[in-house]
C-alpha cells in the first residue's frame, strides 16, 4: 500500500486515476480547490465515487496547490510517497484570454509541489504535461525529440513545468517524470470538449459544430490508457527525469469524428461549420515508442471504440450529466476541440 497524493483529483483525469489507485488498495489524498472552470456538480460526483470506492483510505482536501503552507502540511502529515500532479488550469483558448491564471497554477503551483516533494522525501513525482508543448509541426508523429514551440500560454506553462521537473530530478534528486497527454476523453470528461458536445447535440437532433474546415486531426487518448500509463509508474524507476508521450498512436480528423458520432447516435443531422479558433494546433499525433520501452505502454482503445463507449455512458448518465453540458455550452461560444 502506497500513500498517494493526487492534485486536481476532483477533475476528469485525476478522479479516474484516484479511483483506480483506491481500487488497487492504495491510500489516496486528493487536493483540489474545486475551481468552477466547469460545473462543480461533475467534480462533486467524481469525489463521491472515490469515497464509495476508498472509504477510510480516501481523503479530500479543499485547497490550492498555490497555497504553500497547505501543500507542505498535506505532504508531510499524510506521509505522501507518490505525487500524481494532475491539477492545472486547462484550456488553450482560456489561456489566450487570461494568461496569468495558467501561469499561477501551472507554473507557480508546480514549483510549490516540487519544493514540498524535495523537503519531505517524496519517492516519485509524476507530472501531467500535454501535447500542447509541441505546437508547430516539424514532422509527424511527434516523438519526444520533436521541437517544442507552443502556440498558447497554456502550452508554455506545460513546457516550463517539464523543465522544472527535469531540474528537480537532476539537482535535488527528486524522481520525476512528465507524461505528455494527447487529448484525453472518456466518461465524466469536461463538458466543453468536442466529443461531449457532438454527442449531446446529436442526441438532441442538433448538428455538431466543427470549427474550421474539419480537416485538423487529433490523437485522442481514452482515459483508461492514460490511467494505465500512470499506474505503471508505481513499479518502474527507469524513466526518472524523462518526458514521455502518452497517446493512442492513431489519428482522426474532426470532421470524421463528427460523422462517427452522428452514426453512433443515429442522428438525422449533418455537420455545421463555423470559423476556426485561434491557437488550436492543426494536427497532433503521438509516437509512443518511448512509453512502450519505459512503461510497457500499449494503448488498447481506438477512437471509434472509445466514442462508442462514451456514447453508451452518456446515454446511461444522461439525466444528471446532460444539464451540465447544456450549462457549459450556454457559457462558452466555442467548445474546445483539443485540450
UniProtKB/TrEMBL annotation:
<dbReference type="InterPro" id="IPR036291">
    <property type="entry name" value="NAD(P)-bd_dom_sf"/>
</dbReference>
<protein>
    <submittedName>
        <fullName>NAD-dependent epimerase/dehydratase family protein</fullName>
    </submittedName>
</protein>
<dbReference type="Pfam" id="PF16363">
    <property type="entry name" value="GDP_Man_Dehyd"/>
</dbReference>
<dbReference type="InterPro" id="IPR016040">
    <property type="entry name" value="NAD(P)-bd_dom"/>
</dbReference>
<feature type="domain" description="NAD(P)-binding">
    <location>
        <begin position="5"/>
        <end position="309"/>
    </location>
</feature>
Amino acid at each position: 500500500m502506497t500513500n498517494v497524493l493526487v492534485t486536481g483529483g476532483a477533475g476528469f483525469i485525476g478522479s479516474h486515476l484516484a479511483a483506480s489507485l483506491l481500487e488497487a488498495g492504495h491510500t489516496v489524498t486528493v487536493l483540489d480547490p474545486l475551481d468552477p472552470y466547469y460545473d462543480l456538480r461533475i467534480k462533486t460526483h467524481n469525489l463521491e465515487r472515490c469515497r464509495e470506492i476508498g472509504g477510510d483510505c480516501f481523503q479530500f482536501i479543499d485547497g490550492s496547490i498555490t497555497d504553500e503552507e497547505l501543500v507542505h502540511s498535506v505532504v508531510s502529515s499524510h506521509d505522501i510517497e507518490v505525487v500524481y500532479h494532475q491539477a492545472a488550469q486547462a484550456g488553450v483558448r482560456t489561456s489566450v484570454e487570461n494568461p496569468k491564471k495558467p501561469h499561477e497554477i501551472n507554473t507557480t503551483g508546480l514549483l510549490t509541489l516540487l519544493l514540498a516533494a524535495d523537503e519531505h522525501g517524496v519517492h516519485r513525482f509524476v507530472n501531467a504535461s500535454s501535447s500542447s508543448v509541441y505546437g508547430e509541426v516539424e514532422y509527424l508523429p511527434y516523438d519526444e525529440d520533436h521541437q517544442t514551440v507552443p502556440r498558447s500560454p497554456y502550452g508554455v506553462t506545460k513546457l516550463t513545468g517539464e523543465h522544472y521537473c527535469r531540474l528537480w530530478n537532476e539537482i535535488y534528486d527528486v524522481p520525476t517524470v512528465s507524461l505528455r497527454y494527447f487529448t484525453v476523453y472518456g466518461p465524466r470528461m469536461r463538458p466543453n470538449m468536442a466529443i461531449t458536445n457532438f454527442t449531446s447535440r446529436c442526441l438532441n437532433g442538433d448538428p455538431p459544430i466543427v470549427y474550421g474546415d474539419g480537416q485538423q486531426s487529433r490523437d485522442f487518448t481514452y482515459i483508461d490508457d492514460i490511467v494505465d500509463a500512470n499506474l505503471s509508474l508505481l513499479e518502474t524507476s527507469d524513466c526518472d527525469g524523462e518526458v514521455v508521450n502518452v497517446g493512442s498512436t492513431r489519428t482522426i480528423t474532426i470532421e470524421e469524428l463528427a460523422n462517427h458520432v452522428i452514426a453512433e447516435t443515429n442522428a438525422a443531422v449533418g455537420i455545421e461549420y463555423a470559423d476556426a479558433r485561434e491557437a488550436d494546433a492543426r494536427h497532433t499525433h503521438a509516437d509512443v515508442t518511448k512509453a512502450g520501452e519505459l512503461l510497457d505502454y500499449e494503448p488498447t482503445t481506438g477512437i471509434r471504440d472509445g466514442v462508442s463507449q462514451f456514447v453508451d455512458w452518456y446515454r446511461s448518465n444522461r439525466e444528471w450529466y446532460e444539464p451540465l453540458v447544456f450549462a457549459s455550452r450556454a457559457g462558452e461560444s466555442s467548445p474546445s476541440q483539443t485540450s
